Automatic annotation (TrEMBL), chain A:
Its main location: nucleus. This is Ribonuclease P protein subunit p30. Residues 246-269 are annotated as: Disordered. GO terms for biological process: rRNA processing; translation; tRNA processing. Belongs to the eukaryotic/archaeal RNase P protein component 3 family. InterPro entries: Pol/histidinol_Pase-like, Ribosomal_uS2_CS, RNase_P_p30. The gene is RPP30. Component of ribonuclease P, a ribonucleoprotein complex that generates mature tRNA molecules by cleaving their 5'-ends. Also a component of the MRP ribonuclease complex, which cleaves pre-rRNA sequences. It is found in: Nucleus, Nucleolus. It comes from Eublepharis macularius (Leopard gecko).
From TrEMBL, chain B:
One of its GO terms (cellular component) is nucleolus. It comes from Eublepharis macularius. Component of nuclear RNase P and RNase MRP ribonucleoproteins. RNase P consists of a catalytic RNA moiety and 10 different protein chains; POP1, POP4, POP5, POP7, RPP14, RPP21, RPP25, RPP30, RPP38 and RPP40. Within the RNase P complex, POP1, POP7 and RPP25 form the 'finger' subcomplex, POP5, RPP14, RPP40 and homodimeric RPP30 form the 'palm' subcomplex, and RPP21, POP4 and RPP38 form the 'wrist' subcomplex. All subunits of the RNase P complex interact with the catalytic RNA. Several subunits of RNase P are also part of the RNase MRP complex. Belongs to the eukaryotic/archaeal RNase P protein component 2 family. This is Ribonuclease P/MRP protein subunit POP5. Its main location: nucleus. PANTHER family: POP5 HOMOLOG, RIBONUCLEASE P_MRP SUBUNIT. GO terms for molecular function: ribonuclease P RNA binding. It is found in: Nucleus, Nucleolus. Component of ribonuclease P, a protein complex that generates mature tRNA molecules by cleaving their 5'-ends. Also a component of the MRP ribonuclease complex, which cleaves pre-rRNA sequences. The lineage of its organism: Eukaryota, Metazoa, Chordata, Craniata, Vertebrata.
């Protein structure tokens, strides 16, 4: 059984609250979390910031409940797009974009949803759950997305917070399920407070309300999340052909100063 | 004649309020869960779930509760548990959340799971504890954790709670 994955922990500038969220996730039994950085073009042109590293956040990573492994922290970039030109940033080889593990898009209209499903190089397509879906989800675009291994993300915290949001969440989820028949769904939290987060089994059971079958709901919090991670990894490694590993730091530091001297010693010998 | 099948939910109540422990009682949990079922599934759902619905066990120190309901309707109960955001007790609302640890068919399996879970929690405490006295107390209670006869179990369980408070 694969570990549980929560791919949406909103990034906040206060490290303390972020730390509390990750600790709560570890306590609930999630073995991988992704910190989510949102870029919204409608607000203003935002810079892509460098994602926070796990060593910056914790001196020692919290242990996952029921396992003896520390939690794994990834980074994820979400683009809120309302115009096709906004997606160019994904292709640009700008400095900070390569540090992100997962890319997601939040399409605002039906045309962009189709573009995101068929051509964009992303891992996740977010479905709006806080208002009535502004477009119809079409079967051809969803089928292409499933073939390409792109997953659809549903967020459950708005449903916990508010009753009207809950209605929109459930109705939007059900309309999506009619098209994709429970395949390629990822359930994630987007919790701002630790108390809003729910355990993985509870979330899997929420899938029952969203029209998922039992096995699909369980996959939505575990194996599908892992598939998204691997899809993101495949982009970095050119479909898994090339894999670059960072050199461990200690030999690096040793090398830096005596780099010129070392060959000489070899010559002497 | 076939016996009625039940499902038992072993839940952990998570809260960051310090006064929360004192006000945690069976009645408050019972009312909260019933309210949330009514909110989620309406009158029909509440009627289904209230057959044999009861709070079987409650540990205020660790925040563990054991809920019971009929097997046929346990999905209705389970799907409304995540929507609990506060516990109302003596006209005060305490923010909290329910985390389901285990769903079992008998109280016995839930008890076994809980002992296992608590001993794991104690080990986690042992890893983080600082003073020597705490370490001793936790080590003793870890060793005393085992699945034994009913009467003995209760006393030992209390012991481990005390040490959890100390740490």
């Amino acid at each position: 059984m694969a570990g549980f994955v929560d791919l949406n922990i909103p990034h906040s500038l206060e490290k303390e609250s972020l730390r509390k969220l990750v600790e709560a996730a570890a306590h609930l039994g999630y073995s991988t979390v992704a910190i989510n950085y949102v870029i919204d073009y409608e607000e203003k042109k935002k810079e892509v910031v460098k994602p926070i590293s796990s060593s910056e956040l914790f001196t020692s990573l919290p242990m996952v409940q029921g396992k003896s492994k520390p939690i794994k922290i990834l980074s994820r970039l979400t683009l809120v797009v309302s115009d096709p030109s906004h997606c160019n940033i994904l292709r640009a080889t700008s400095t900070n974009i390569k540090f992100y593990d997962i890319f997601a898009v939040f399409p605002k209209n039906g045309k962009l949803f189709h573009v995101a499903c068929t051509t964009l190089d992303v891992d996740l397509v977010c479905i709006n759950v806080t208002e009535k879906l502004p477009f119809y989800i079409k079967r051809p675009s969803v089928n292409v997305a499933i073939d390409r291994g792109i997953y659809f993300e549903l967020v459950y915290v708005p449903a916990i917070k508010d009753s009207t949001m809950r209605r929109y969440t459930i109705s939007n989820a059900l309309s999506l399920m009619q098209i994709c028949r429970g395949k390629n769904i990822v359930l994630s939290s987007a919790a701002e407070k630790p108390l809003q987060m729910r355990g993985p089994y509870d979330v899997a059971n929420l899938g029952w309300l969203f029209g998922l079958s039992e096995s699909n709901a369980k996959a939505a919090v575990s194996t599908n999340g892992r598939a998204v991670l691997l899809h993101g990894e495949a982009r970095k490694t050119a479909c898994g052909v090339v894999h670059t590993v960072k050199k461990p730091r200690t030999p690096d530091e040793d090398d830096s100063t005596p780099a010129t001297k070392r060959p000489k010693w070899h010559c002497d010998e | 004649m076939v016996r009625f099948k039940n499902r038992y939910f072993l839940c952990e109540i998570i809260s960051d309020d310090s006064r929360f422990q004192q006000c945690l009682d069976e009645r408050a949990v019972h009312n909260t869960v019933k309210n949330v079922i009514a909110r989620m599934h309406g009158d029909f759902g509440l009627a289904c779930c209230s057959i044999a619905f009861s709070v079987k066990y409650l540990n205020a120190y660790t925040g563990i509760v054991l809920l019971c309901c009929r097997k046929d309707f346990h999905r209705l109960l389970w799907s409304s548990l995540p929507f609990i955001t506060y516990l109302e007790s003596r006209n005060q609302r305490y923010p909290c959340s329910f985390n389901t640890l285990h769903v079992g068919a008998t109280i016995r399996t839930c008890q076994k799971f809980l002992i296992h879970y608590n001993s794991n929690q104690l080990l986690a405490l042992l890893r983080n504890c600082t003073s020597e006295a705490d370490r001793q107390a936790i080590q003793e209670s870890v060793q005393s954790c085992m699945f034994v006869e009913e009467e003995q179990f209760h006393s030992k369980d209390e012991e481990s709670d005390d040490s959890m408070q100390m740490a």
